[in-house]
Design brief:
This protein is an alpha+beta fold and about 425 residues long. It has helices at about 5-15, 15-55, 85-95, 130-135, 145-150, 190-195, 230-235, 255-265, 275-320, 320-330, 335-370, 380-410, 410-415, and strands spanning about 55-60, 65-70, 75, 85, 100-115, 120-125, 140, 150-155, 160-165, 185, 200-205, 205-215, 225-230, 240-245, 245-250, 270-275. The radius of gyration is 32 Å and the shape is elongated. The longest helix has about 45 residues, at about 275-320. The strands form four sheets. Strands 1, 5, 6, 7, 10, 11, 12, 13, 15 and 16 form a ten-stranded mixed β-sheet that branches. Strands 2-3 form a two-stranded antiparallel sheet. Strands 4-14 form a two-stranded antiparallel sheet.
Length: about 425
C-alpha cells in the first residue's frame, strides 16, 4: 500500500472533520477569487467605457438628483423637465479663454420620434462634423459594403464559414458630412431592423426624411440611433433652440484641466460639468480602496481557514495515536508518518482550492453585476484557478507542518500502550 492510499483512506474515515476543514478553505479562497475578479473586471469595463466615449468633458443641465445613462456614463437626467441648455450655451463655451484647448464642441439634442408603424426610435440631433470628431469610431458605410454586409466570408477546410471583419482605422472624411435638414443617417442595427438603405425614405412623426447614409457597425449605442442636423431635430421634436447635452474633446497638453473646468463652470453656472477623466480617476481610487479592503478581509478569512485546518489536523493526530504507533511498530519511519499527514493536508487543500474557485467565480459572475451596479461579464480565468489551487496548497502545507511534526515525534512504545 502506498502512502497516498493511507492518506486517502484516513480522509474517508473522518468525513465530518474534513468537511469542516474544507469549509474554512472554501470560504477563504472563494472570498479572494470573487472580490479580485469583480474589481478587476470593473476596472477593465470602466477603462473601456471612458476610452470609447471619446469626449472627455460632458456638459448637462443641472438636474438635481435625477440621473440617466448615456454611452455607459451616468449623467444628470437632462431629458426631464429641469433646467435646459441652449445654443447660446454653446456660444458661451466658444468665449472661454481656454477655447484653444477644445478640439471639438459637439452639442446634441436627444429625443424620441415615431415611425408610421408606431415604432419609437431614438433621434440624435447634432453638429455632425463635431459629433464624428468626438466619436472617431463612427464611419459611413458605403453602398458596396452594405450589399456585402461589411464582411468577407471564407470557407475553411472543414467546410464551415469563417468571418473576418474589415478593420478600418482611418477617421471619417468630415467633408462628406454635409446633410440638409431633410436628410438623416441611420445606425447599422436600426437600418437592418427597418429594412432601409441609403437613398430610401423614412417618415418620422409625420415628417419625411431621406436616408443620407448608414453607419458602419461599431458595437456601440449609435448602432440603434438616428442622426440628423440639430436644427432638423429641434424642429422635429418641437424643441427650438434646445440642447440636451454638450460633449467636449479637450487636449490637456495645451493647458490646465482645472483651469478649463473652472472657466466652463463660470460660463455655465446652471449646468453640470463632468470631467470623465477626473471621474475615472475617482472611481479608480475607489476601486483601489475596495481591492485593499477585500484583500484584507480575504487574508483574515484565509488565516482563520489556516487555523481551522491546523487545529483539525492536530486533533486528528491526537485521535490517531494508536494508529501511528502501529505504523511505527511495523517499520514506518518518522519521514513516512510526516509524509502521510502532509499528503492529507495537500489533498484536502487541492479539493478546497477547486471548490473555492468555483464558488468564488459563481458569486462573481452572478452577483458581481449587482454588487458593482454595472453591466459586467466576469470571465472564467485559468490564472485565477491556478492561483486558487496554489494558495490553498500553501495554506494546507503550512497548517499541516506542526501536526505532521507532532505525529512523527510520537514514541511508538507509548502509542502502543493504547492498544
Amino acid at each position: 500500500m502506498q502512502l497516498y492510499h493511507i492518506a486517502i483512506n484516513n480522509l474517508r474515515r473522518r468525513k465530518a472533520k474534513m468537511v469542516f476543514v474544507l469549509l474554512g478553505l472554501v470560504i477563504g479562497i472563494a472570498t479572494m477569487v470573487s472580490v479580485y475578479s469583480v474589481v478587476e473586471t470593473m476596472q477593465v469595463e470602466m477603462t473601456r467605457q471612458v476610452s470609447e466615449f471619446g469626449a472627455n468633458v460632458v456638459i448637462t443641465p443641472d438636474a438635481g438628483e435625477l440621473t440617466f445613462s448615456y454611452g455607459g456614463i451616468t449623467l444628470p437626467a437632462a431629458m426631464f423637465d429641469v433646467e435646459v441648455l441652449t445654443l447660446e450655451d454653446v456660444e458661451a463655451i466658444d468665449g472661454v479663454s481656454s477655447r484653444e484647448m477644445l478640439r471639438a464642441v459637439a452639442p446634441k439634442l436627444l429625443g424620441v420620434a415615431t415611425t408610421e408603424a408606431e415604432q419609437n426610435l431614438i433621434v440624435v440631433g447634432a453638429n455632425l462634423q463635431q459629433e464624428f470628431m468626438v466619436k472617431p469610431w463612427l464611419r459611413l458605410r458605403s453602398e458596396d459594403e452594405m450589399m456585402e454586409d461589411a464582411t468577407e466570408v471564407m470557407v475553411g477546410e472543414d467546410g464551415e464559414e469563417m468571418e473576418f471583419e474589415r478593420l478600418n482605422l482611418a477617421r471619417e472624411d468630415l467633408d462628406r458630412l454635409v446633410l440638409s435638414d431633410s436628410e438623416l443617417m441611420l445606425g447599422s442595427t436600426l437600418a437592418a431592423n427597418l429594412g432601409v438603405m441609403e437613398g430610401d425614405y423614412l417618415t418620422l412623426s409625420g415628417t419625411e426624411f431621406q436616408v443620407f447614409a448608414v453607419l458602419e457597425d461599431s458595437g456601440s449605442a449609435e448602432d440603434e440611433q438616428i442622426f440628423m442636423n440639430i436644427s432638423a431635430a429641434q424642429s422635429l421634436l418641437e424643441r427650438p433652440g434646445e440642447v440636451t447635452l454638450i460633449e467636449l474633446a479637450a487636449d490637456y497638453t495645451l493647458g490646465s484641466e482645472e483651469a478649463l473646468l473652472s472657466q466652463l463652470n463660470d460660463a455655465l453656472p446652471h449646468a453640470e460639468i463632468t470631467s470623465l477623466r477626473q471621474e475615472a480617476l475617482r472611481r479608480d481610487e475607489m476601486l483601489t480602496r475596495l481591492v485593499r479592503f477585500g484583500m484584507s478581509v480575504s487574508v483574515l478569512i484565509l488565516l482563520v481557514g489556516l487555523l481551522v485546518v491546523a487545529l483539525t489536523m492536530s486533533g486528528a493526530v491526537r485521535e490517531r495515536t494508536r494508529e501511528i504507533g502501529v505504523f511505527r511498530a511495523i517499520g514506518f519511519r518518522k519521514s513516512h508518518v510526516t509524509k502521510i499527514i502532509l499528503l492529507e493536508g495537500v489533498l484536502i487543500s487541492v479539493v478546497g482550492g477547486i471548490l473555492g474557485y468555483l464558488a468564488g467565480m459563481s458569486v462573481a459572475r452572478y452577483a458581481g453585476p449587482l454588487m458593482a451596479n454595472m453591466d459586467i461579464q466576469v470571465p472564467w480565468r485559468l490564472d485565477m484557478f491556478l492561483l486558487a489551487i496554489v494558495l490553498a496548497v500553501v495554506i494546507g502545507l503550512l497548517a499541516s507542518i506542526y501536526p505532521a511534526r507532532q505525529a512523527s515525534q510520537l514514541d511508538p512504545v507509548e502509542a502502543l500502550r493504547f492498544i
